Structures are given as C-alpha cells and as structure tokens.
Amino acid sequence: xxxxxxxxxxxxxxxxxxxxxxxxxxxxxxxxxxxxxxxxxxxxxxxxxxxxxxxxxxxxxxxxxxxxxxxxxxxxxxxxxxxxxxxxxxxxxxxxxxxxxxxxxxxxxxxxxxxxxxxxxxxxxxxxxxxxxxxxxxxxxxxxxxxxxxx
Length: 151
Prior knowledge:
- By secondary structure, the protein is of the alpha+beta class.
- 46% of the residues lie in helices and 21% in strands.
- The chain folds into two domains: 1-44; 45-150.
- The strands form two sheets. The chain has a three-stranded antiparallel sheet, with no helix packed on it. Strands 5-4-6 form a three-stranded mixed sheet.
C-alpha cells in the first residue's frame, strides 16, 4: 500500500480489526520512510457496478465518491463516522444485491437521502439541496415544508 504522505511503497500493517458491522477490515499502517500513519479499509466487492447518469453516460461506481459526497453533507456535524461507514456499506450491499450491473444515479441518491434522514436532518437537507438541484431559497422552503408534512 502506497503512503499517502510521501508515496513510498513500503508500508507496514501495525493493527488490523474488523469493523463493527463485520463488512470490512480496518488496517492501521505506518510508512517505513516518513513514519506517517494512516488507515485503510479492505472490503469484499461482489460485482462491478456502473452508474447510469442523467445525461445517459455510464461510469464505474466509485465507493469513495459516494463517501466523499456524504462527508460533504455531514461536514461540521456531530455524526458518528462508524454510522456513516455502516450506511455506505449498506447502500453498496443493496446496489450489489440488485443483480443489475447498471444503477441509475437517482436510485443511489434516494438511498443516500433515506440513510441521511435517519442519521442527521441537517445533512439530509444539505445533500438534498445538491441532489435535487435547489436553485433558490424557496426550493429549501418547499423541501422543508414537505419534510414537516411527512413527519
């Protein structure tokens, strides 16, 4: 595994443990060149998924991109990282178990919205503002009104 700090290829595993839900292995690593410490995760990939974008373009599903968009929505929020990791793993498992190679981007967005709604309402609204392409303040007002009606 390459060191993210100095790009040295010689890193050593110092500690390994299963994540709380058992879906991946968390490894703490140290770089022999610069001494940098970092964490990696190892998970099972059942099948290769492609995302069908609204434009019609198809791209390979990227778990890291999904995690980054969720991280953006939850930034500066007091959200347990393990909960987010379980949510992401759950979304990936749902997509892989569908048996389809192509997944619509809308479907992924809906799964993320459902997960964030359970974890943090502010992150849910933040994600919705990008996912549903809010253009002005009244879009937020309409969304929040609908959210209150659903409760």
